[in-house]
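Standup notes
- DV: blocked on the single-chain target, sequence here:
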Amino acid sequence: MAALLEAEDLRKDFGHLAAVAGVSLGLAEGSLTAIIGPNGAGKTTLVNLLTGLLLPDAGTIHFKERDITRMPPYGRVRLGLSRSFQIMTIFPNLAVHQNLLLPTLSRHGMNARAMARLGGVTEANEEADELLR
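- DV (later): unblocked, structure below
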């Protein structure tokens, strides 16, 4: 069975600096993986490539066996690939459930305006509830 998320020969250069050079990886569904290394090793650049915040100069990225190399971040979110940032208080005035509801709304093709009509967003509410469990 193929990995849930695969990258092959990823490369990202910033001028003459190769921030990511020839990185390949395969992440299995349900696995827990850490990316470690010193400052400047390219960890954040790699995550930005995988999540679409940056486009690679070379290489490919597949999610659920689909080529997402040039797909924008919102398209990746709709497929179920998202990220969290180190600063976890992105919406400090919202409840935990509401913070989880926002990305699930995006996966269902909706935006934050749908929060005003929460009763009609059953699937997103159920997904946020499952994340809380």
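- Follow-up: Helices lie at 43-51, 73-79, 96-107, 122-132.
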